[in-house]
Amino acid sequence: MFLIPDADTLVTYLKDFTGSSDDTEIKQCIFQAELAMRNIELPSLRTDPYTTFGTVGANQLMPIPSDMNKPILFFQQGTDGMPNSTGPWIVYDRIGDRDIITQGLIAQLYLTPVNVPAVIRGKFSEVGDNYQFLPYVGEGTQMNLYYYRAWNLLFTPILNNTLVSAAGTISSVTGTGPWTVIITGMSSTAGCAPTDVIIADDNTGSLGYQNVVTVVSVNSDTQITVTSTGLTVPTAGTIANISVLSAVPATVQTNEILQSWPEGYIYNSLSEYYIKRHSSDDAAIYKQKAIDAWKTVEDQNSLGKWSGGHTRLTSIFQPRRDRQYAVK
Prior knowledge:
Number of strands: 15
Strand order of the largest sheet: 1-7-3-4-5-6-2
């Protein structure tokens, strides 16, 4: 069996298969294939909802996780995400943002279920960068989150940051741009050298938002001089986590899709390759292979109804009337 453990091996395989000698061409086809697979629902991308939690903030809003691709199911099974024996246990179905806002206007007319020994079907929806829930949940409530994670595209850069000092102080800022900045009070300057590019977290001071900061000189064990180039003026004060960026960033060599469904990468990349070569018949053959391979996965997803709530925007098991609330 031919194994494809990483992105470079995938490129080699596709070059051998197609007879191409152009790495860039093959990588472009892989990228096009990845764009076609961005919303894919593979089991390897699912979170463990019993160890994945979200915390509800003010106004019943919970920030959408940064690694989320698609929600599957959210539920509340007790305190701090842990089950209890008294309830309520609430399973949230996804609805549209207009519906969640409209229904939220009258939510205060209903009693919030407390210690009810029943499974209650609630609702959630995206509102801005957050999720909103009905019935309302208190600030600090932890929600169990079951969703498909987003995945990294192959060959995208990975910046390897080397921490130099956990803290430092911008003691001087001179110039009109680029600015010359002196950083003092560092725990160490080992690993810093002229021409290195550094980053740091803002505290009371800042090296400049999205500015490129380059080391000019290492003055001592606790002090360096840098230049900050960009649109934002650096400000004096404390900074944290001063790190040197790798001169040659690493790249993503594998992901969950390549490891658990390599046929998706192969068939879709070949389809894109033959589209680029204006061979529509060959492109159609490999696109159909990709579709057939995906049907096998999709069939298993459908059997378990993993996608039931978020593709229909409401659960197929949910009654159409809300009988679980009592009107005040």
